[in-house]
Design a protein that fits this description.
The chain is α/β, with parallel strands linked by helices. The protein contains five helices and twelve strands. It has a single domain, classed as Rossmann fold (3-Layer(aba) Sandwich), CATH 3.40.50. Helix 2 runs parallel beside helix 4. The protein starts with a helix and ends with a strand.
Length: 189
Amino acid sequence: MKRKARQKIQKVIKSFSEVERQAKSLAACENVCRLPEFDKASVVMMFLSLPEEVDTARAILTAFQEDKTVLVPSVVWEGRHIIPLTIESLDCEMKHDDHGLRHPKHGEPMPASEIDLVIVPGIGFDDQGNRLGRGGGFYDRFLSRDGFRGVTCGLAFEEQVVKEVPVAEHDIQLDLLVTDGLVRRFVSQ
């Protein structure tokens, strides 16, 4: 069921032109940067985008300009977990893994307990705060860590929001979802 949902949403996303994707990405990033949760956050974790995802560069640059500590996920495939690493610049030397993900070569790990806001990718989202990821459970494990108390915010194109995504017992519900069109709140802050 999850695989069919992923395929349907990915087909829509792949139909965007590059100009359309960039315009929608800019709008989504502007919506993130206007959040009171973003404004209050000292430490923000954001993903470095894959080609079919919202391009997070504008939000990351805004966080740098506002002197926030910016972290990006480093995926440890063997242990099936995420390590948050500091990033000082989008131009820093990057490591690329076999799955197309990248992270700073010289980033320093930071405890999850120090993160105020996590911007979470996904393939699909619904209006109840549920997220359909890529199927590895990495973010669900990360967000359920002992000590993590930050706000969780999905970031997507409006076309990735569907009526309902399939949910499993281990799936973590998000606090917010931001798209190029709307900000949705699921849990009162």
